[in-house]
Amino acid sequence: MGLWTRMKRSVRSLFGGFIEKTEDPELILQQTIRDMRDRVPELNNSVAQVMATEKLLAKNKERLETQQVDLDSKIRASVKMGRDDIATAYIGQLQQVQIDLQKTSQQLEHANLASKQALKARDNYVLQMQRRTAEAMQLINQSKQAKLQEQLAQTMESFQLGDDASTFNEMRDKIDRRAAAAEAKMQLGSASVDTQMQEIEREALDMQLADKLLAYKRDMGLLGAGTGAPGTQALPAEGETGSGQNGTGGR
Question: Which CATH number fits domain 18-149: 3.10.530, 1.10.287, 1.20.58, 1.10.1060?
Answer without folding.
Answer: 1.10.287
